Amino acid sequence: MTEHESDQLVRHGLDTTNQFAQKLRHDPAAIGGARDAHYALQTSVGRTRDVASEQRVNLASASSGSTTDRATATSQSLEKEVQDLLDESAEIEKAVTEAAEALHVGEIKNDQVRDQIVKEIAASMKALAAVKSIQPPESRAAASRDILMKLQTKISQLTGQAATFSEQTINDLTAIGTRLGGEEQTTSSSSASSTKVGSSFNSSSGYSGGSDGGGGGGGGGGAVHKPRLPVAIPPQPGSGVAINLPGGKQVMAPNETAAKAVRAALSQLGVPYVWGGTARGVGLDCSGLVMTSYQDAGMQLPRTAAQQTVGAEVPSIDQLLPGDLVVWSGHVAMVIGDGQMVEAGDPVQISKIRTTNAGQSFIGFYRPTG
Questions:
Q1: Tens digits of per-residue pLDDT, 98-138?
Q2: Closest Cα to residue 195, out of 351, 33, 327?
Q3: Strands 278-279 and 332-337
Q4: Is the torsion defined by CA of 346, 352, 357, 361 positive or negative?
Q5: In angstroms, what CA-CA distances link 63 with 49, 50, 69, 73, 229?
Q6: pTM for this structure?
Q7: Dist CA 257 CA 261 (whole Å)
């Protein structure tokens, strides 16, 4: 491998993490200044509130009558407005602190992935140098290919981790901004209530949201943007491709690509959950399972869960078909039919279709194949 080729390998290997580093870049000094400014504002305004309160008490004790009543009422109203301002400022200060921490953690995780990629590339180049001594010479090309293929797989796994870390950071920041903006946000415990979804997702009679599932993808709730895509066209009578589910039931996928993707996903049942994992048979996260399964079917999907809202939108639960995706702000699962879906829990497993997932925002149902 020439020096130019080595440089190319390092640059391409770090492209993804460098892009995420740009997204996570921030100015700690400016953030600290904003936080300190809000603290100073709270101190100053708090003194104003205390002075107003003292003057109202003195006025009430020194006089009486309708004029005094109006004055004390005005003072109380002013004190309430000041207190509201203080509360809002405290929320902003807290949000700034949380945002700074989220960005800092995201930067650290991304830098760790970048360092690991550099180490993997360095170790692989050392191994490639050692290949030159392999005898017979005709075995060297095969050994080199094996080293490079393993390196490519490792880099893919690591960039997947970086993508997941970046998505989690963005989701955390979105949740902070949503809370600060006063928008309603769904929260959840181990026995969560159903996530609020648009009316188009509630047309199926007899559907129960079910319990929150395992399976990561990271990230919390917060505001999510629903892509505007064409509505999926129902398959024509007599069309479709048969799939045999693990329980023995046969279902019909809308096309061969969807059928292949479902079969590929089901072949990973029992594979452990690995954050950022894209290594089939070794470790997968939720979007890694979906991406690699569709990749095996000949279709390339984006890496992260919230980006896998592609193809066409399925307007309601009762229109879901095998191969369709159920997407949240930080998780994704693939419909396999018979009211079930496959997802990267720990391990990859089959679950009932649901619209709740650990308090994350439900985005919708999508058919990648249109």
A1: 777 777 777 777 788 888 888 888 888 888 888 888 878 88
A2: 327
A3: unpaired
A4: positive
A5: 21, 20, 9, 14, 68
A6: 0.46
A7: 6
